[in-house]
Amino acid sequence: MIEPVIRKRPDIPESIEKITEKARELEAIYDVVQDPLVLIDSDFKVQRANLATIQFAKNHDFESVLNKPCYEVLYQRTDICPYCPAAQTVDKKENGFQNFLTPKSREIFFKVGEKKQTLQLEFYPYPKNEGEHWIVEKISDVTKQKEKEEESFRMRNLASLGILVSGIAHELNNPLTGISLTLQNLKANWQNASPEQIEKRLEMIKNDISRAAIIVSDIISFAKSDRVKVTLGDIIDTINRAKDTVVRLYPHLSKNINWKILFDHEYQFPFHPQKMERLFMNIFRNSLQAFDYRPGEITIDVRKTKNWIHIIVEDNAGGIPEAIIQKIFDPFFTNNKSGTGTGLGLSICYSIVQEHDGTISVKSTEGKTRFTISFPASGENTEDPL
User: Fold this and answer.
1) Which of 4, 18, 113, 300 suits 327 as a labelling partner, its CA being 20 to 30 A distant?
2) pTM, to two decimals
3) 166-226 adopts what CATH topology?
């Protein structure tokens, strides 16, 4: 900023000297600001600018900036900038920027030679006279900040991809573990096993391969919004299969567990058999891991109220802390202290229930955890469950 020459004269009142000194202090503060600050009148001409503005405009001094069009000095344009919030008032100069009464901001791409910049422009109304407003414009170069944000976004995408791959491995690990254990058993006992026993184990391998194929198919069609295909099935049979599979996959965790499956008759309704089996496998596995090899009991109670079928799964493994119980259905949330879990199991359960127009909730009191899963008996959600 051009500094005015001040000569002290004995005939100048002391108050004027103080005002002049204050003005010089304000200009010094103005020039210290690292971002360009420009005062623009209602004719789009620069009336005041700080030192950073001169550096931004390049090859200019204060004299060549003042009273020049802002769009020409700052952005090398021949007409009003299209992103200027006061551009719509250009035909109403006699009234100033009367419609521009609140601060506004714009993000623009600006190119100088070969250099590309991302600029954050902030516009503040300055009431000059009655019915007339000028503008204070602040220009911030946010190029590096945007580059960091884009890099962070790329890193988050890579992290999400890693989590997705981890989730796929998590889902495929169940049938692959079953295949591995069954093959080990066959290898150790095939000479002494009867044909029926061998055939039974081969059937188990076949079922596990089928389950893995379904998981891969689900991954391939992940982006599709097609409604899940359902068939009429017996939920008791599905629960029993899920329990037997989990016991086979986790024999040591299941060793001291007492299972109770309570129902008064068969319950049939439309559902996807393989997905429903995965739902209960994940819940049962979650309970087994909570017991951590300790003895306990898992109770599955199936009942019907009006048009809903309810499956209540309860364990006495110690309960879920209140601080995290609201998070357990969140993708990738895990409370597994061993660090081996991916936090996808209960999230998958929630997704499967939603696909079947059902509801799932969890409560934990007195060392017990209870999952309540409700499905419309007709396959159509017509009323609220419990």
Assistant:
1) 300
2) 0.47
3) Helix Hairpins (1.10.287)
